[in-house]
Design a protein that fits this description.
single chain, alpha+beta, 33% strand
Amino acid sequence: MRCPKCGSENCYIINEVEESGRDYYGGRGCLGYLIFGPAGLLCGLCGKGRETKNTNYWVCNNCGKKWKA
């Protein structure tokens, strides 16, 4: 792989990880407790949850330019 900025072949690939979302929703757990009792606390686990996004990039060792793989 050649760097689009300086033309160097001294490049390496990296992986960036982004996480978003929540693991437990306290409001849903409390509401579930009020409606269903102690077992309703599990309602806080319902929903979208945590999402992970992986993106690979090439990075040039000479100039530092970063671009998507």
